[in-house]
Write a structure and sequence with these properties.
This is Stage V sporulation protein K. InterPro entries: AAA+_ATPase, AAA_lid_6, ATPase_AAA_core, CbxX/CfxQ, CbxX/CfxQ_RuBisCO_ESX, P-loop_NTPase, Spore_V_K. This protein has helices at 44-54, 60-81, 103-116, 130-133, 140-152, 174-187, 200-209, 211-214, 228-241, 248-264, 271-293, 298-302; strands spanning 3-9, 12-18, 23-26, 93-97, 125-128, 156-159, 193-198, 219-223, 245-246, 303-304. It has 12 helices and 10 strands. α6 (174-187) links the parallel β6 (156-159) and β7. It folds into 3 domains: 3-31, no CATH class; 43-223, P-loop containing nucleotide triphosphate hydrolases (Rossmann fold), CATH 3.40.50; 228-308, Orthogonal Bundle (Helicase, Ruva Protein, domain 3), CATH 1.10.8. The longest helix is centred in the C-terminal third of the chain and has 23 residues, at 271-293. It has 311 residues and is an alpha/beta fold.
Length: 311
Amino acid sequence: MKQPIRMKESGQIKVVLHTKNDRMEQQPTRDEKPFEWSNSNEHAVLKSIENELDALIGLDELKKMIREIYAWIYINRKREASGLKSGSQVLHMMFKGNPGTGKTTVARIIGRLFFEMKVLSKGHLIEAERADLVGEYIGHTAQKTRDLIKKAMGGILFIDEAYSLGRGGEKDFGKEAIDTLVKHMEDKQNDFILILAGYPREMDYFFTLNPGLQSRFPFVFQFPDYEPDQLMEIAEKIAAEKQYQLSPEAKIKMREHFMFIKEKNTSSFSNGRYVRNLIEKAMRSHAVRLLKESNYHYQELMLIRSCDISY
């Protein structure tokens, strides 16, 4: 018979189970427990953000990291109130992921979190791409970039496909945009947060062009492609939000298609964006079918069948 022996070691509780022939050891960790403390009214901000994050499919590591950022900011302020040293941390971020993996959505949520925690005075999101930063002549790029940063003050400047700034080489005006961004990241690091986003491989190459740039982004978030089951979950969620349902046959057809897409491993696949377009196309086909059938029964108005799904 196994006899549990409880031992205290280095501040942790160890549970050692003895048997006749073996010894098994298990060390419970805090990571295995849910964030019960976030239910407190004192952490209503985190609870609200958690609800938004939990509505997103996948991204478990990212959700964990955002909770860690919240905890760090919160405890740092408690330390300051107790007369302890309060450290400062740069909050600029890098998002690596293919299209449709939730990068822009997460950036908006982070903006709201930092606004509620008074890290940012506005918490708004300014979205930009190469054309918004790069000008046509010397000096024009720096001015355009400064103007964008000015608009982002108190919030987040989100630059998608940021690697495009390094495509043209040394003589390209994109380098001028990078230099201007770097300067303001240092001078105004407490006034705005810069998030650079793009395809993983291209972003890795981009930072080899400017080795000093990567170290300025302490937070690197990975946005992996969705698996077929996750894509299916997204499809059902989008349909439910629009008060539609997928028939069992429609679900099978859609899941098989997602599996086929994943097997092809195409780099142009846009993940959640692709699923949304697929559902909206099915809704239009569904409407045409019901119109032809003059079938306006309540259940049929909601039910998307396999014949409504096309690729």
